[in-house]
Amino acid sequence: MQSTKSIQGTREILKNHKGKTIAMVPTMGYLHEGHGALIKAAKEKADFVVVSIFVNPLQFGPNEDFDSYPRDIDHDLAFCQKYGVDLVFHPDIEEMYPKDMEFTIRIKSMASILDGRKRPGHFEGVVTVIAKLFNIVQPDYAFFGEKDRQQLMIIKALVTDFNLPVEVFGVPTKREESGLAKSSRNVNLTETERAEAASIYQALNMASEHIVNGEDSPSKIASEIKIYIEQNTSAHIDDLAIYSADGLKEIDKIQEDVIIFIAVKFSKTRLIDNLYVKI
Q1: Where does the chain bind (R)-pantoate (predicted)?
Q2: Fewer CB within 10 Å, N- or C-terminus of the chain?
Q3: 35 belongs to the catalytic site
């Protein structure tokens, strides 16, 4: 396995592997089994796998957890070695953003809901760094977790709208035995909060079952989830919505496949999850 903090170094290494198919797994580090699932999927698809590790300041708001976001590059490099990654690109901020950028990418409706509404500028920061990473690595394939499904759909739209020559794949959310979605931010949960956080997935599954059994009111489903979370955790719901699976459109009645999105705030961290419900 090779690793570099340099954009030019990354390009030089990749020059030596011309003719191979390249898969990329962009991450913010503090890698866990969820990232491992992405790497495994990438290895099955391509000859050469690149993992990027970069905590991107552009996607954090002024009062968010950029400074406290967990980082451990030694762990991450060992993790990538274990999973058979070929190249790790782990630049610092000055390498990725040597000066203030003149250009940004604006997103229309897909960034006006959910995390885009709650975290203004977040997805613009995401697509900016992804566009840069795709340009640096020029992968044939890229892999993202379905836990961040809104992000996944926005990145797919970026690739489509700008005709980028990369195929984007979503990989099912890796979960702990309790059902809690694997996340780098889980390290900030107390032992009690981690146990309580299992209720997030339980609430989503309960809601899915009710929809499949005929409940077609998004407001009723949302109310059931809210009550379940309030009764079983010390957290509060930061966001909760049900959108059409096709294009994330608002709906008054559930008549097609939907995605239930939820964000829950514990004392020191905000967790997101979602569930695709097939009608």
Answers
A1: 59, 151
A2: C
A3: yes
Q: Where are the domains positioned within the chain?
A: 2-171, 186-277
pLDDT tens, 61-90?
998 999 999 999 999 999 999 999 999 999
Ligand-binding annotation for 94, yes or no, is no
**The domain 186-277: what is its CATH number?**
3.30.1300.10
Tell me the CB-side half-sphere exposure of residue 125, using CA atoms within 13 A.
19
CA distance 215 to 207: 9
- Distance CA(83)–CA(221), nearest Å, equals 40
Pairing of strands 87-89, 2-4: parallel
The token pair that represents 262 in the structure block: 């939820």
* Residue 264 · residue 235 · CB < 8 Å: yes
147 is in an annotated binding site: yes
pLDDT digits (tens, 9 = 90+) for 85-138: 999 999 999 999 998 889 989 999 899 999 999 999 999 999 999 999 999 999
Q: Which amino acid does the sequence have at 10?
A: T
Q: Is 33 annotated as belonging to a binding site? A: yes
Following DSSP, what letter does each residue of 26-86 receive, concatenated?
A: EE-SS--HHHHHHHHHHHHH-SEEEEEE---GGGS-TTSSTTTS---HHHHHHHHHHTT-S
Q: What does DSSP say about strands 270-277 and 258-265: parallel, antiparallel, or unpaired?
A: antiparallel
Q: State in words which class domain 2-171 has.
A: alpha beta
d(CA 215, CA 6): 53
DSSP assigned state of 238: E
Residue among 17, 35, 122, 210 flagged as catalytic: 35
Judged on CB neighbours under 10 Å (0-12, 13-18, 19+), 247 is: exposed
